Amino acid sequence: MPAKMLDLYPTRHTDKPEWQKRLDPVVHSDELSGSPVPHEKVEGFRQKGYMVLPGLYQEAEVAVFRAEIDRLRADPLTRSSEKTIREPGSESVRSVFAIHRDNPLFARVARDERIAGIARFLLGGDIYIHQSRLNFKPGFTGKEFYWHSDFETWHAEDGMPRMRAVSCSILLTTNNVYNGPLMLIPRSHRHFIPCVGETPENHYRESLKKQEYGVPDHKSLEELTDRYGIETVTGPPGTAVFFDSNIMHGSNSNITPMPRVNLFYVFNQTGNIPEDFLRSRSPRPDFVAERTIFEPLVIQRERFI
Amino acid sequence: MPAKMLDLYPTRHTDKPEWQKRLDPVVHSDELSGSPVPHEKVEGFRQKGYMVLPGLYQEAEVAVFRAEIDRLRADPLTRSSEKTIREPGSESVRSVFAIHRDNPLFARVARDERIAGIARFLLGGDIYIHQSRLNFKPGFTGKEFYWHSDFETWHAEDGMPRMRAVSCSILLTTNNVYNGPLMLIPRSHRHFIPCVGETPENHYRESLKKQEYGVPDHKSLEELTDRYGIETVTGPPGTAVFFDSNIMHGSNSNITPMPRVNLFYVFNQTGNIPEDFLRSRSPRPDFVAERTIFEPLVIQRERFI
């Protein structure tokens, strides 16, 4: 059997969540010299699985992004689109998917050197967008997002073979400790925690609202937080956060009046495209997980003001 | 009409949430000289509506309380009691009420000088327990508690006439920013924000799980947080928090593995007992709001180890 036919990270086939060591590097470029961010940031990312870059986008750029989001959320086409996910039990728009394809402005953000250049460096080669979305966690009613490793989902449900993808979130509102910020378990990206149980058919639509399957077990989460603790990402608008595809993360609800808005891009390395044989079920729609367009991003410095 | 027949804080009778000035003092003792806590703590309480006292109980005392709580939560009598409130959609015990009456240990905590002495000072006279409970916000599934002023509820649903009550929470686990800690809007206690709409009959049982009626409107909450911000209470086990009956507060959900456990006592001044005419509906059960026993607490220094 050729190497590519092996499932190196089995999950959702077992009754016991036995931890496995990560088999892939975290930073895939061999040479730090080409890094677009300071070396200590890269080292922090390697060790803890994430890094925060305040001020990557200017206030005026954030204003441009916010105006476009307000326009999109009010647009009847967006509201009726299957690519739009609502809050559980409400009509509020929670996420709009595939913004790198459908929206000219957010397509330019996707290939902007300031984020895509960092992703290309971390992943050590050409990249494309596996998934993109804008997240709008409203004030007062924003619900929690339970703990998960993105890679575990992308591997089980999309067939992504290896840990060679990275997520980038651009904060467009202030993220405080109290408005449901991203919580990460630092260093958890070095373990693969398989999930117990099978994936139901058409799981994706519910799972984007509320995770119930494909979630890590309580004991593993206790063990991870005992060992490594929990860190929250806070910062002003314009902050960018990069986190490894396999880091355990989640967020609590948001009863404050302050919405939490961000742009979210998942960069995958072009040698790591999904394999059908790794999926146990029918594929998720391609607005959630890219399945046809794997051309490398043409990265360039974009201007938004 | 005698003064006592007036409703000084009308709420739930109106369509418009018109703010009203607080008519009562915050600290009811005239002389700071008798204060059991440093004067700057009292001043902080007066201005912001709450104060945090780390280390009021020792680790060994907390261990005694925790052991009793574990015993209680496992006790079939507790599990089947009407005084026990469960998490929405789960069998987990969320709160056990009237612990100052039913539990000898927690009755002694209620009259312990370390908390009751402070309450008596703040309220400027004899006090009794209006409500007590242990709160157990479990890990992984702890739900949010929406914004509210306790006084608004006690006034509308129990008939408490004036703002002359204080809540004390004793933290029995570490409260971090990420495990659903108490959030307060400092200085909000100086405004009375009436709630719109009527109180449904038998509202209390659902409201203890999830607030849907008697909640402040979005616009008032935005105005309050714009003016005053939000503060979270964090601290190690043994920390005590005193907060004014009218301060706006709430908490987010808790997906972390760390439960949030506390003892909660509401002290009311014996001149401020509930009046039937102020309630619009039938009274809540007396394990939620004391209606018969108004004898002053006999406050003394208690020992738990």
UniProtKB/TrEMBL annotation, chains A, B:
Any Pfam family matching the protein: PhyH
Annotated catalysed reactions: L-ectoine + 2-oxoglutarate + O2 = 5-hydroxyectoine + succinate + CO2
Keyword annotations of the record: Dioxygenase, Iron, Metal-binding, Oxidoreductase
Top-rank lineage group of the source organism: Bacteria
GO MF terms, alphabetically ordered: 2-oxoglutarate-dependent dioxygenase activity; iron ion binding
Reported cofactor(s): Fe(2+)
Gene3D superfamilies: q2cbj1_9rhob like domain
Role of this protein: Involved in the biosynthesis of 5-hydroxyectoine, called compatible solute, which helps organisms to survive extreme osmotic stress by acting as a highly soluble organic osmolyte. Catalyzes the 2-oxoglutarate-dependent selective hydroxylation of L-ectoine to yield (4S,5S)-5-hydroxyectoine.
Similarity comment text for this entry: Belongs to the PhyH family. EctD subfamily.
Assembly, per entry: Homodimer.
Full protein name: Ectoine hydroxylase
Organism per entry: Leptospirillum ferriphilum
Name of the gene encoding the protein in the UniProt record: thpD
